[in-house]
Design brief:
six-stranded mixed β-sheet; 10 helices; 36% helix; 269 residues; single chain; 10 strands; four-stranded antiparallel β-sheet; alpha/beta
Length: 269
């Protein structure tokens, strides 16, 4: 991996200067809670247009890194660039303009139960866009069609939806502002094998059709095999390896070997 950049250096003359081919560049990220260090000196690149699968054991910090990028968890050190912009060097308004270019699907969907599906999808529009209600309604229905939900789902409440429909509605909300980069936290968690496979195909189709970059935290081996261009493995508080599935199969580390070549992994073949 590339050398860590100095977060206090305003001159981008080092090899770690902004790379136009990267949607996300994290360098030297350390996150801890109290005396416990979760991530230590983590480096990670996500290339524009790719689907990157991010895996690791339970409790190792997969979602913590994603939340640190999103600004939901405070990092102790390191730098984060999104779409060529250094987040730490932006004021609130500048950061907000960058955040408009990403969408997030949280693990359980995180839909507001008191709002209809259409109203949930419109939340980012209300916050960031100055458009009338009719146009918002049209855009919300368009986003719902993108994710394969029927027209009558728009006026339903989350409690009236199946688990798979909740995931799709949450994905529609993540796409509300036409993002360049989408963060997915365990998108197939809780879905049956058929539903998970359908959601995988949806992610791949949207990535190709809309030109999305996808950062996907997952534990689903089928997702890794079927739609991910590369995989990053988190263990020992840092990213051990990033590469294709073929490269994962030859990497010599106990956790990586057990995860990708262990009994449960072999059983899927």
């Amino acid at each position: 991996m590339m050398a860590q950049s100095n977060p206090d250096d305003d001159q981008d003359t080092s090899p770690t200067q902004s790379d136009p081919e990267l949607a996300l560049k994290a360098r030297g990220i350390t996150v801890g809670f109290g005396s416990k260090i979760i991530l230590e000196n983590v480096d990670l690149d996500v290339r524009k247009g790719e689907i990157l699968g991010f895996v690791g054991g339970s409790g190792t910090g997969k979602s913590v890194l994603m939340r640190a990028v999103l600004g939901l968890v405070r990092k102790r050190s390191g730098t984060i660039e999104v779409l060529g912009q250094k987040l730490d060097k932006k004021n609130a308004d500048q950061r907000l303009s960058i955040e408009r270019r990403w969408g997030v699907l949280f693990q359980q969907g995180a839909l507001f139960s008191s709002l209809t599906v259409k109203q949930n999808v419109q939340l980012p529009m209300r916050e960031h866009l100055d458009i009338d209600q009719q146009l918002m309604d049209e855009l919300a229905r368009l986003k719902l069609s993108f994710v394969g939900l029927p027209p009558d789902a728009a006026d339903k409440y989350p409690s009236e939806l199946s688990g798979g429909m909740i995931k799709r509605a949450a994905l529609a909300r993540a796409l509300a502002l036409d993002p360049d980069l989408v963060f997915l936290d365990e998108p197939t968690s809780g879905l049956d094998p058929i539903g998970a496979a359908e959601f995988d195909r949806l992610i791949r189709n949207l990535s190709e059709t809309l030109g999305l970059t996808v950062y996907m935290v997952t534990h689903d081996l089928d997702s890794l095999h079927s739609i991910c261009d590369r995989v990053a493995v988190l263990a020992d508080k840092k990213v051990l390896v990033v590469g294709t599935m073929d490269e994962m199969m030859t990497f010599d580390h106990p956790w990586v070997i057990e995860y990708f070549r262990g009994e449960r992994a072999l059983r899927r073949k």
